[in-house]
């Protein structure tokens, strides 16, 4: 299991209000952030995850490296959608947070969501990629929403920073699958997804309600859909159990009736035998 310190950088610029991803780019990003956190912690209990927002007026660290999901959730709720994308400075602040990790044995990784146009030039991005590579920081990029604008720049950035396939770029256009579902089967998490959090782990182990990690206030549609799905599954299992119990009861009842008929036939036979002996 890889021992890592991971900073997740979320995009909270104005573009994240767009509703082309359920229920918005911002909400889809937050659900994916929760999934990534759970996956990283489950894959190795000594892993730590931090959170940073790089929209608004500039990068803001929402949570330093931690294993406590409550701190991540608290940081998420304090974030507001505003301003523009500050990709370059966001990466640098995230790298600085990783540099100050307590466990220096942990490998350094940044997972950055990009859902708005990147303003940096190719030359500026090349300089940033070389700097991060020199400092042994791996960067995974989740490119969505403005992929037609950003893909070429991000592909070049990824080709420079990628060192023995330690950094990945995943481009996700709008589609039927939720953002976190695509990420779960992408190279970003594929190596750890089965050792870490499955979807049922993410949703609270299939228990009642909407799960431990889905905040209904943050993504009400997803939470409602999950709750209804779980309730339907529970009702189906109860129906099957009731039908099985009914069949077992009928089988027992039929078996008892057959025994009674055998006893009656035996008694009639004994009576006939006694009558024959008396007549003789």
From TrEMBL:
GO BP terms, alphabetized: positive regulation of proteasomal ubiquitin-dependent protein catabolic process; proteasome assembly; proteasome-mediated ubiquitin-dependent protein catabolic process
Keyword Ribonucleoprotein: no
PROSITE patterns xref list: UIM, VWFA
Similarity field: Belongs to the proteasome subunit S5A family.
One example GO MF annotation: K48-linked polyubiquitin modification-dependent protein binding
Compositional bias of kind Basic and acidic residues: 233-250, 258-280
Database matches in Pfam families: VWA_2
VWFA domain span: 5-188
GO cellular component: cytosol; nucleus; proteasome regulatory particle, base subcomplex
Species of provenance: Spathaspora passalidarum (strain NRRL Y-27907 / 11-Y1)
Keywords: Proteasome
Protein name per the record: VWFA domain-containing protein
Taxon lineage: Eukaryota, Fungi, Dikarya, Ascomycota, Saccharomycotina
Region (Disordered): 233-280
